[in-house]
Design brief:
This protein has 439 residues and is α/β, with parallel strands linked by helices. It has 3 domains: 118 residues, 3-Layer(aba) Sandwich (Rossmann fold); 247 residues, tm_1862 like domain (pyruvate-formate lyase- activating enzyme, Alpha-Beta Horseshoe); 55 residues, Nucleic acid-binding proteins (OB fold (Dihydrolipoamide Acetyltransferase, E2P)). 35% of the residues lie in helices and 21% in strands. Strands 15-16-17-19-18 form a 5-stranded mixed beta barrel. Helix 13 links the parallel strand 13 and strand 14. It is globular and about 60 Å long. The relative contact order is 0.08. The structure holds S-adenosyl-L-homocysteine and iron/sulfur cluster. Iron/sulfur cluster binds next to helix 7. The site of iron/sulfur cluster has 10 residues, from helix 7.
Length: 439
């Protein structure tokens, strides 16, 4: 979501003459787009701001250049004025709902004065309606935000407070943005939302409300769109139409990131997830009926308040049963204002560390087994960028694996049939099977 937002900030600032640069030293303005989901991410902002203070003072001393520094995103939303108290060299603080106003804020900010511009409202106007339609080139795989915010209030999570209530963009606006992306050379679109499958709109044909499955079918009809993905989904919003889209829609990739957080019913209840472990198993069965080779990924939190050895063992047996091709896992982190933060049964730090290591070992072994099981298979790979070594490119398989191959930049944007030669821990190595690309 922050990658998408950062791109949109660049779009919003382009008419004011700003272009993205690669190094802070080249910049006239530096925007930190921040994440507040866990304590570590939040604290990183302040250490990064310490470094940027040096960049700013060097630019003033050596080049007589006044660099503007802005903090955007969820830390800006949550901390507001506090940021300028802790880091007075910050010129602008802008929340995720008001970044469309950046050009105005830049005009107000005076880098010579010790004043700050802070804008962390949840305004009535919808930022998507006000951002410029034109955007800078995105490359072959791009994000498209369709939904923001969340009304689910899991007891550990800060998103409903920093991103606000659940909001769905109108289908017509999403289709228009998708058309523009495709016209600019994008072939794969990932639909984004904090709860992307809570997206709801209006179905013109039946006059009924429509869910993400319907939107996916409409997008799939766009000429030039070769691949679709969506993230992040909530188990409660996996309705039949969306599951069936995995069976019916060719461009919808056989991959789903479906976080569950814990495999213990006791912990799921305490997290206010509103579903149990068996509900998740049933969803996975239905998904695998619809798309037998679907690759699954998830998110897990270990050491949630009150998590016992038995609860953790339930999470391990859960992961064993589902079989993930990758997953993200985190130690529970207290977030200000959330119910779980004031729970008195916090888990010991060392216990969290040990559980995280055990869980990550299991996930890693499942990921490696999956990557190895692909050896010898031929699959279409979207080639996205240089791979880091001379003569190497990288792309994605349908299952979201990182694929490394020998090639050159002229291949960027092509979908090429490739044979998987070697499955590694975090990637696969592949070679081109024929000269004819699928494009
Ligand atoms: N809407 C998604 C999650 C978005 S937040 C869902 O409901 O699944 C992304 C991930 O950050 C979560 O899935 C969770 O694993 C992690 N996370 C959120 N709050 C956290 C906290 N307080 N401590 C540790 N991890 C957290
Ligand atoms: Fe946070 Fe996801 Fe729960 Fe919403 S559903 S409160 S975004 S974890």
């Amino acid at each position: 979501m922050n990658v998408y937002d950062s791109d949109r900030m660049a779009d919003a600032l382009a008419p004011a003459g700003y272009m993205p640069t690669h190094a802070p030293e080249d910049a006239d303005m530096i925007i930190l787009n921040t994440c507040h989901i866990r304590e570590k991410a939040s604290e990183k902002v302040f250490s990064e701001l310490g470094r940027l203070r040096q960049v700013k003072s060097r630019a003033a001393d050596q080049q007589n250049k006044q660099v503007l520094i802005a903090v955007a995103g969820c830390v800006a939303q949550a901390e507001g004025e506090e940021i300028t108290r802790r880091a007075p060299w910050v010129d602008m603080v802008v929340g995720p709902q008001t970044y469309h106003r950046l050009p105005e804020l830049v005009a107000q900010a005076d880098p010579h004065a010790r004043s700050h511009v802070v804008d962390i409202e949840f305004p009535e106007e919808v930022k998507f309606d006000l951002l410029p339609e034109e955007h800078l080139p995105r490359g072959p795989a791009a994000f498209l935000s369709v939904q923001e915010g969340c009304d689910k209030f899991c007891s550990f999570c800060v998103v409903p407070y920093t991103r606000g209530a659940e909001f769905s963009r109108p289908a017509s606006q999403i289709l228009e943005e998708a058309r523009r992306l495709i016209a600019g050379g994008t072939v794969e679109i990932t639909l984004l939302g904090q709860n992307v499958n809570a997206w709801h709109g209006y179905d013109k044909q039946s006059s009924n409300s429509a869910g993400l499955g319907r939107l996916i079918r409409e997008l799939a009809d766009l000429d030039g769109l070769k691949r679709l993905r969506y993230t992040t989904s909530h188990p409660l919003d996996m309705d039949d139409d969306l599951i069936n889209a995995h069976r019916d829609v060719d461009v919808l990739m056989p991959y789903l990131h479906l976080p569950v957080q814990s495999g213990s019913d006791n912990i799921l209840r305490r997290m206010n997830r509103k579903h149990g472990r068996d509900d998740y198993f049933r969803i996975i069965d239905r998904l695998r009926d619809a798309s037998p080779d679907i690759a699954l990924s998830g998110d897990f939190i270990v050491g949630f308040p009150g998590e016992t050895d038995k609860d953790f063992a339930d999470t391990i047996s859960f992961i064993d049963k589902v079989g993930y091709t990758s997953a993200y896992s985190f130690k529970y982190s207290k977030r200000p204002g959330t119910p779980a933060a004031s729970d008195e049964t916090q888990v010991d730090e060392q216990v969290k560390t040990d559980r995280l290591a055990a869980l990550q070992q299991l996930i890693s072994s499942q990921q490696l087994a999956f990557n190895k099981s692909c050896e010898g298979r031929v699959m279409p790979v979207l080639i996205e960028r240089d791979g880091g070594r001379e003569g190497q490119m990288t792309g994605r398989s349908p299952y979201m694996q990182s694929v490394y191959l020998d090639g050159n930049s002229s291949m960027i944007g092509q979908i090429v049939d490739m044979k998987i030669e070697q499955g590694r821990q975090n990637s696969v190595l592949a070679s081109v099977v024929s000269d004819s690309s699928v494009l």
